[in-house]
Design goal:
20% strand, PX Domain
Length: 174
């Protein structure tokens, strides 16, 4: 079963058949499309190999990731040093699940390490949702971030190459 690595639901009934792609996931290019060598990269797709184990899918150990909630942690001085901790539930491929708690900065660190380790990953390494210093605790911003972080982790854990990376395993199991 092939599926696009992006959210597939929408809240606008007129756009029900189109996948929702938050604005920060859209990449616009202003290059000339008339050049002979210009090719658009194919979208990221995930392949479900859980039914038929193969050498290619053997590093997979997670089935899905969901982020249902978060905790706001206050600093020692009001409004200074406040941050959000995300509760991420990882469903294991062979049953069971685990919950990890991570800050956004830890996701940034993971992405940076993966970009260094996999310099040719290109679009296979998904983007993180953007930062916003002014609205970082606003419910609508936190919801956008929750969806973006879940997307990010799902794309990593369901990609055999990233799933086998010690960097990702350290992130999950430390």
């Amino acid at each position: 079963m092939d599926q696009q690595c992006s959210p597939s639901h929408t809240t606008d009934p007129t756009q029900a058949s189109l996948p929702v792609v938050p604005p920060y996931w859209q990449h616009r290019r202003f290059e000339s499309y008339s050049s002979v060598g210009h090719l658009r990269p194919a979208p990221i797709s995930l392949e479900d190999n859980t039914e038929h184990r193969s050498e290619r899918s053997s590093p997979l150990w997670a089935r899905a990731v969901s982020i249902h909630d978060h905790v706001l942690v206050s600093g020692t001085i009001p409004s200074v040093g406040d941050y959000t901790v995300w509760n991420c539930q990882i469903e294991m491929l062979h049953g069971g699940s685990m919950i990890i708690r991570k800050r956004y900065s830890e996701f940034e660190d993971l992405r940076s390490k993966l970009a260094t380790t996999f310099p040719n990953a290109g679009q296979a390494l998904p983007p993180l949702p953007p930062k916003n210093a002014f609205h970082r605790f606003k419910p609508s911003f936190l919801e956008q971030r929750r969806v973006g972080l879940a997307y990010f982790l799902n794309c990593l854990l369901l990609n055999p190459e990233f799933a086998a990376a010690p960097i990702l395993k350290d992130f999950i199991f430390d």
